[in-house]
Amino acid sequence: MSMSKLAIAGGWADLPRDLLESVLPRLPVPDRVRFPAVCTAWQSAHTAAAAAGLPQAAPSPWLMLPFNPTARAGRNDNDDDGSAKLSVARFLNLAEGRAYAIRQPAPAARDRLCVGSSPDGWLVTADACSELSLLNPVTGAQLRLPPAATLPFVDARRGSDGRVESYGLRFSFADDGGGECGEEALVPPEMLAPDRLRYEVYEKAVVVSAPRRVGTSASSWGGYAVLLICQPLGRLAVARAGDAEWALLDADTPGRCWVDAVRASLSSGADGSRRDHQPVYTMDAAGRVDAWDTDAAMAPRAVALAPPCVCSCSGRACAMSAACRKYLVELSPGRLLLVHRLREAAHARYAWEPRPEHVEYTTTGVELFEWTAATGQWARADGKDRVLGGRALFLGKSASLCVPADDAGWCAGVRANCVYFTDDGPWSHYRCHEVAPDVGVLDVTDGSYRPPRGAARDLLWKWPPPVWVFPSLAG
To answer: Which residues form the KIB1-4 beta-propeller domain (predicted)?
Structure first.
């Protein structure tokens, strides 16, 4: 019997439960959000499917969009203090080329800076006091991470009411006499306003393991771990569920200048061995890669995995220049990809750039280097489309990911053999508020670079800097 005849015979509310539960995982995220609002029967099926942990179809990635400072409040945003408008964030669905406005929990979405995202749907955000939280922007679930002042190189000065009035950041820098990043030399602490610390310290956050429910309470979450690449000198800090403070992961190797990290797959190690814990790979400015067991009961230690990688500029230049960025991607177990993003000063041939006088640079190409466990060395990938194999890369402050393209029946709206970039700094208060972000899709087959479909108008605005989101209703 067809769906239409079944609906006429008994109504949509009378559809069999097993049929509803089989359809639900195949729906895109926006339809899954609307599903329980149809009727009580559908709401019950939705609740049962969520409790059973039924798998979801691979979601199309979203782009978290900047705010339009000139937009007027809508009919639902007419609070006297404008709080409703400030609590709404907008996300561009790549599959549809349209934006969705989703209300977010406090603090106001407009005050948050996103410094990381995970393939599980979670964002790592920094509020106006530079405090970090894990946030699922679809479900509204939120967890506080340890205070910024618990980082070993950050001090907080508080007023009589206990609120942070300023932060003291103890800088260190690379002495020219050292290796890739040199020796550490300390300088007098710098005092920063509460909202400025997030620009100076938080390079990138990686959700090593996503939160999971451990009880019936809305606040009962456990099992998560977050890795933070932070200044000074690109250090690694980690916080796990239940931790009251951040702990340095690289205490024994303080001068490595880490630039990216990626959560490794659980199926097998990079060397092909089986494992039952969650490791993470970290890459320094020279392209060296280490593997860490963040689940270790004792202090985790790094295992050297990949040697330095020689690209078109030195590792130190990449670390210090806004025009050069490196990313680490796991293509498959035992196979890593180093992506070197090439950028130049903005020029007129990119007609879609908003306000060229406020665009610092734009992406012009990529260099790809492949590492395999069999060779143990980096090798330049001359056939970029062959290396990607019809897949796509998503890079920026978000998790560095390789995903199937729409051509394979996955991730609707994602183009094969393309690299999806967002702007990722080095950030400053000026760059985040005054400079148009370098966001676009680079096709490695023809070298073209264009904004994501439906995003050109929104990229006229700057704050907050856009980031890739991989929506999920699991949290």
So the answer is: 91-431
